[in-house]
Design goal:
The chain has 154 residues and is of the alpha/beta class. It is built from two helices and eight strands, in the order E-H-E-E-E-E-H-E-E-E.
Length: 154
């Protein structure tokens, strides 16, 4: 397969997420991530919200699905957000606990055996798997799935 050499400045843009209840998801993502609503569509049957920070679009929510996130189907595995410090991870964890979010593990877990990068693994109101992690500062410990790659959702 040929390489796309014309894409010299490629980086991830925003991530679009299908949700079942825009108001519920909007409140969740704003509370956890501090997103600003950059634009919003309120037309019946076509509701959406563009979320970002400091003028940069990061996540779009689209109210166009039913049911809940299915890990056994092709598509998104999880959505990960990096922060600068473990203290930021802990602060997000406190907000999530206040919202009653479901966690895959209790507390901050390392990405690998005795690793110092680590984070929290949780789900949004539709069961979409999310992660907030810091590249350093996690207490070295056993990873939740020792034989798995650096992710708390295997």
């Amino acid at each position: 397969m040929a390489e796309a050499k014309t894409l010299q400045t490629l980086q991830t843009g925003h991530v679009g997420v299908n949700v079942t209840d825009l108001e519920r998801s909007l409140a969740f993502y704003q509370a956890v991530f501090g997103f600003d609503v950059m634009a919003e569509g309120k037309e019946a049957g076509r509701r959406w919200a563009f979320l970002g920070r400091e003028g940069r679009l990061l996540v779009t929510l689209w109210q166009q699905s039913t049911g809940s996130f299915a890990t056994g189907r092709p598509g998104l595995h999880h959505l990960s957000f990096q922060v600068g410090t473990v203290d930021e991870v802990r602060a997000a964890e406190a907000v999530l606990r206040g919202l009653g979010a479901e966690f895959a593990y209790d507390g901050i877990v390392p990405h690998g055996e005795d690793g110092t990068s680590g984070g929290i693994f949780f789900t949004d109101p539709d069961g979409i798997r999310l992660e907030i992690y810091a590249p350093t500062g996690a207490d070295p410990a056993d990873a939740p799935t020792p034989a798995a790659p650096t992710c708390g959702f295997f």
